[in-house]
Amino acid sequence: MNYIETNSIIKSYFRGSRRLSNVFWATVLNVGSFGFFVVGFDSFFDINSLVVPNSREISFIPQGIVLLFYGTAGSLLGIFISLTIYWNVGSGYNEYSKVTKKVKIYRKGFPVKDRELTLTFSFEDIKSIKMRIKEGINPKRQLLLGLSDGREIPLTGLEEPKALNMIEDEAIKLAKYLNVFLEID
Question: Which of 16, 21, 47, 181 could be bridged to 88 by S-S, CB 3.0 to 4.6 A?
Answer without folding.
Answer: 16
